[in-house]
Amino acid sequence: MTAPDTAATPQLAPTGATTGSPGPQGRLGALGPVGLVLAGGISVQFGGALAVTLMPRAGALGVVALRLLVAAVVLLVVCRPRLRGHSRTDWGTVVVFGVTMAAMNGLFYQAVDRIPLGAAVTLEVLGPLALSVVVSRRALNLVWAGLALVGVFLLSGGGGHGGDGSGFGGGLDLVGVAFALGAGAMWAAYIVFSARTGRRFPQADGLALAMGVGALLFLPLGLAESGTKLADPVTLGLGAAVALLSSVLPYTLELLALRRMPASTFAILMSLEPAVAATAGFLILDQALTTLQAAAIALVVAASMGAVRTQVGRPKSAVPEA
């Protein structure tokens, strides 16, 4: 969310990479490809932290509705996707992609409403990691999966129980954990349907249309939870900021980066998302880490990087079609 919204291949590449998200070339390219990826990751996670601060105003569902709506409007205006000339299969693919996107965002924001941002992103990244392990069919990736599970075990406080959601570790809210894992499963599905959509629609047309589908699905839910609060100017402004930070800007930065670096290098940098999320949670939400919790996140990050590295150099024919 997401979580993050940034993945389009089993190597954790973003949607913008496969669908060709629009973006200004100008000064952004001067950051260098690594700087662009890091800036995109920081934007996503700080956007997520801002979303958490908005939840008391608009509710978790309201924040998702605002994020998807603003992002859809921006992408539809910029991309101006062609509506005619697509097959029924094309439309089915983009609708499923939009549903998956909406579900991923909805589950993730329900998670961060209950557990700290760093924990939510760490649990969510298990979805793409599991997909990478499955499609790689390499025994070594079982080691990375085991390393990630150790990290999750430590993150849960070594099997400790708790339920108030106030802690980061032994007091993780189990419902929040379930939502984060569900978001991870949707992230894996998002990767598959992002790739399919990218093959069927030119540039960012499929992404823009899918974002529109997701916004239409979530708007009634957001209105049901928050009602007229969504029309408050401050709420609208903050919602727009979340959308720009978490969706529009990262897609642009990631597209520019992928034009100048290998996808495998990009994926390794994307594996740092849990650490960036924990930093954003600390700076904006005052969600401090203990040494054990930091070690848990580091294990999951290392497992993600290892899984990506295992993919590098595989014959293209060994990677199943999404």
In short:
With 322 residues, the chain is mostly helical.
Commentary on this structure:
By secondary structure, this protein is an all-alpha fold. It has one domain. Helices cover 71% and strands 0% of the residues. It has helices at 15-19, 33-79, 88-112, 117-124, 126-136, 140-155, 174-200, 205-226, 233-258, 263-270, 273-285, 291-311. The radius of gyration is 18 Å and the shape is globular. The two termini are 21 Å apart. 57% of the residues are buried.
Distance between the termini: 21 Å
Helix content: over 70%
Largest sheet: none
- Secondary structure tally: strands: 0
Provide mean pLDDT, rounded: 78
Question: Which radius of gyration do the C-alpha atoms yield?
Answer: 18 Å
User: What is the molecular shape?
Assistant: globular
Structural class by secondary-structure content: mainly alpha
Please report the number of helical segments. Answer: 12
- How big a fraction of the residues is strand? under 5%
Residue ranges: pLDDT <50 for 5 or more in a row?
A: 2-26, 159-169, 315-322
The sequence of SSEs as H and E is HHHHHHHHHHHH
Provide the number of structural domains: 1
What structural keywords apply?
mainly alpha; 71% helix; disordered N terminus
Indicate the topology.
Layout: H1 15-19, H2 33-79, H3 88-112, H4 117-124, H5 126-136, H6 140-155, H7 174-200, H8 205-226, H9 233-258, H10 263-270, H11 273-285, H12 291-311
Helix pairs in contact: 2-3, 2-8, 2-9, 2-11, 3-7, 3-8, 4-7, 4-11, 5-6, 5-7, 5-12, 6-12, 10-12, 11-12
